[in-house]
Amino acid sequence: MKDPYVYEGTDVLINKLGIKDNATLDKAESDFVSIAASKLRNDGFQISSILDGLEIHKHLFSRLYEWAGSPRTIDIYKGESLLDGRTIDYVFASYIMQALNDLDKEYQSIDWDNINNKEKIEKICYFATEFWHIHPFREGNTRTTSMLLYFLVKKSGLHINYDFLSKNGKYFRNALVLNSLYSSSKPEYILGIVSDSANIKNVSTKKYETINGYEVNKYQYTNHTVDKIKAIEKPSDWKK
Hints:
Elements: H1 22-42, H2 52-61, H3 96-108, H4 117-134, H5 141-155, H6 162-167, H7 169-178, H8 188-196, E1 210-211, E2 214-215
Helix pairs in contact: 1-2, 2-5, 3-4, 4-5, 7-8
């Protein structure tokens, strides 16, 4: 299948800067997204809906991509080293908006004023993971999810240290992977890092070096692809 998001004959995303190599584009993305994320936090952005994740993505990536803030139009896959090269079974492109609307209905149904802080963190981690599992965008899903989670926590009346999450971004992404394995999901990792981000004084520097026995620094970013990869199926066949 042809990927309409990349330059012909490459795996480089078509971008407003005309960059045609991934190393340069990755550097530009990192710089622009870092600035945009800081501005979004400092400008008093407020969230009212899971669908605001689309607006967050637009803020983060609009200087780079014409499609920033818009759901992807193709199905994508990504081999995870944590899963022996298999991919999370992301939502089909044709179902993204329905999945986001369903998730938002679930979010809106919760009486946030009448649950304790532990329950708030658990539910926010659930909604952030489900948003990431939908994988609404061709690129930028994890960074958008981390910002969404930040604003969900803030709206709930709690505090979260975004810089702490960003510093441990590889761990955070793999925690999302491990919490997206259907019946074999492991929520303890995402719950742990989000809880610790509110109390970072007592966190060991070694705690986030490994996740489920996997050395976090071994994780190397790879591009999504339109070529099918063996997925974690439902119910999960992941038994580790």
